[in-house]
Here is the input.
Amino acid sequence: MTLLEEIARGETSSLEFKEARPDDSVKFTKTVVAFANGRGGRLLFGVEDGTGRLVGIPREKVAREMDALVDTIANACTPPVSVDAKPAVVDGKALIAVDVRPGAKTPYYVKSLGLRKGTFVRVGATSRQAEEHTLKSLILEGENLSFDGQVVKDATLAGGELGTACRLMTDTARRNCRNDAERAALKPMTETRLASLGLVVRKGRKVLPTYAFRIVTGGDVPDILPPCIKCGCFRGTAKGDFADRRTCEGPLVDQIDAAFEFVVRNIRVGSELVGTARRDVYELPLDAIREAICNAAFHRDYLAPSCIYVALYADRLEVVSPGGLVRDITLEDALNGFSKIRNFKIGAALEYMKEVEGWGGGVSRFRESCKAMGLRPPKVEEEGGCFKVVFFRRAETADETINETGNETGDETADRTINNVRTINRTINRTIKEVVLEAIVQAPGIAGPQLMSATGRKRTVVTDALAALQREGKVEHRGSKKTGGYYPTGR
Here is the structure.
């Protein structure tokens, strides 16, 4: 892209115009430190603020102005900011381009204003004073530390808290195992493993919890907003008219499960018969939705006074997490499958519990899943200090019955339970238990793995639904664990 094309685009998160070097150096050095605290950027002198009109700098003053700019930046900003000033000519007008590189020793700030008032960050096309939580994040980043690995201030572990955490993580990991061999190879979580993952820290004889430990287990987390996922289903295409809502709290995996189930019960679902079993067909890719929610949980900025939002509209699903992308990753990187985790300890805990199989590539996988279903590719964007993933729903169409044989009446088709008939129902608000129960009614004796395939659900979801149905006396298991299956009670 040429410099003229850059100017034509206007000011952005990485480009700012200045007509001339201001007498008050803070008016441009705040942008310098904002770029250094972010992904870098460029200041163009000789271009009118806001309009992008070329005014130029007298050619005889260019060299002197460049020296003055570099000297001012060196004297006004701390730690030292790496910049490169060079002359340019656009449409016959002399300009000065000052390129600011992203720094590793954050926070960068304007000396005369001090650390708290002089630290700026880029928000859209403006440079704003960093909020307290952003300043804390920059300080930790400058020391190559993550917030989730910090010991909770003045906290101790209550009796039994370690054991409860180990059981929670082990049980979750075991439920998520795909087969008996994987379950047999699973190593139970122990205090030693908690320490190796960075969830607890040993200091002498004391074992202290980190923020990751408390977030993962749903414990008390002082000094930050209690982590949660807020879910809303709206009747239109904008916030306002709720059809359903829920706040998901507690252990992190419980929050992820609850948010995922909220989406599942509120999106349209059709069905098709596979053999003698009925299989639900959802309008959005469930695996991608769950992964997006899971990614939001371990990539979000927990210092930000906000929460994760899962918002379902008539035309789209949005998963929004506070904090945006980490500094080294751009939106283009994210679209190409690259990522950098913000909360290493939380990520390690979720990986042990088999909630995530690896880090990175999420956005590219979302696109593949949507493409396979004939959907528009999802959109990712940074907005207001948040990272947003948007899945687009299809326009709702009338219910229809597809008869592949083409020679049966509607009544005959409704009675059939074989593969050559597919019924597409636009059914809303079916619960997981209803989905699992219906699959068992359609195919008595169906085994657990086949239930997962028939319903398109994760093992944990199917297992929990089966346990609830058995407690309610609606289904029963017959036969051995390996060869038995599930039946409607009394049949």
